Amino acid sequence: MNPVTELAPQLKQLRLSGILDSLDARNRQAIDAKLAYTEFLALLIQDELARREQKKFGTRLRRAAFRATKTLEGFEFDRLPSTNRALVHDLATGRYIDERAPVLIVGPCGTGKSHLAQALGHCAVRQGHDVIFASCAQLLASLNAARAVGTYERKLQQLARVPVLIIDDFGLKPLRAPADEDLHDLIAERYERAATIVTSNLDFTEWDQAFPGNRLLASATVDRLRHNAYCLTLDGASYRAPRQGPNRAKNALASTPKNIDS
Q1: Gene3D superfamilies under this entry (predicted)?
Q2: Does the pLDDT at position 2 exceed 90?
Q3: What average pLDDT does range 76-90 have in this prediction?
Q4: Residue ranges, CATH 3.40.50.300, the chain
Q5: At the fourth CATH level, which superfamily is domain 72-233?
Q6: What pLDDT score was predicted for residue 260?
Q7: Measuring CA to CA, how many Å separate 4 from each of 11, 19, 26, 163, 261?
Q8: Pairing between β-strand 195-200 and β-strand 164-170 as defined by DSSP bridges
Q9: CA-angle at 59, arms to 14 and 20, nearest 5°
Q10: Residue 134 in contact with residue 65, Cβ under 8 Å?
Q11: Dihedrals phi, psi of 164, to nearest 5 degrees
Q12: How many CB atoms lie under 10 A from the CB of residue 194?
């Protein structure tokens, strides 16, 4: 009788059915290389661990809800020569996560703030951390929706506990009640407990302007975000500049009215 036939239900019962994917190949390898039984077993266990880690990685990546596959390898540093590359690569190691420190990224539209934030989030996922990425508007809308169905505290604690929370486009829209209070509560819950990455078009000195109705709340929230934060300023040409067609310059000249001497 083929031993694999007997092994299959037993491996499933032990929740090791993934071993079946590589069992035949590893068995042939063991026979050809005359491996010891312990070496053969070690290979199967390594395969199972690799499969489980890959599955966990896929789950973390889906939960992160990144907009696209934005990695550090794809970030065009040459477009932003003044960017502190050393700091970016240091952040990529995940030290800020262990420190539970904020990372604040500012710059004009189209300079790659969201890309960089997601790239750091992707690094964190690869390092085994849970990450959530959302725009500031989406995040606050989810809290408001939870309030409407009586699950606000549960949602707040869920967001407060995630190791890396990425809040994109902070300050893009003015925060009105209760959104301003919700953001303050979330930042206060995460303060010195978990790492938060924030991107904004506003300069650091303008962040209080995102709270037009409550300057005291603005001060309390921004003060917590700035404390022990790593700050990055991106300054350069927009990635979203329109493409130059081959006839664009010619058409522009043709449409320019000529000066006619009187």
Answers
A1: P-loop containing nucleotide triphosphate hydrolases (3.40.50.300)
A2: no
A3: 91
A4: 72-233
A5: P-loop containing nucleotide triphosphate hydrolases (3.40.50.300)
A6: 36
A7: 10, 11, 13, 42, 94
A8: parallel
A9: 35
A10: yes
A11: -130, 115
A12: 19
d(CA 200, CA 186): 17
- What are the tokens at 257? 């009215």
DSSP letters for 232-244: EE--S--TTPPP-
Cβ neighbours for 43, distance < 8 A, ≥ 6 positions apart: 26, 29, 30, 35
Q: Which amino acid is at 77?
A: F
Maximum separation of any 2 CA atoms in the chain, in Å:
105
Instruction: Strand 164-170: give its sheet, edge to edge.
Output: 131-135, 164-170, 195-200, 103-106, 230-233
Amino acid at 206: E
DSSP 110: T
- CA separation, residue 29 to residues 45, 50, 120 (Å): 15, 18, 39
Query: Which residues does residue 199 pair with via DSSP β-bridges, in sequence order?
Result: 105
Q: What is the DSSP letter of 231?
A: E
Which pair of structure tokens corresponds to residue 109? 């539209």
* β-strands 103-106, 195-200 pairing: parallel
Q: Whole-angstrom Cα distance, residue 241 to residue 14?
A: 56
How many residues comprise the chain? 262
Q: Which amino acid is at 66?
A: F
What digits encode the pLDDT tens for the residues 115-159? 999 999 999 999 999 999 999 999 999 999 999 999 999 999 999
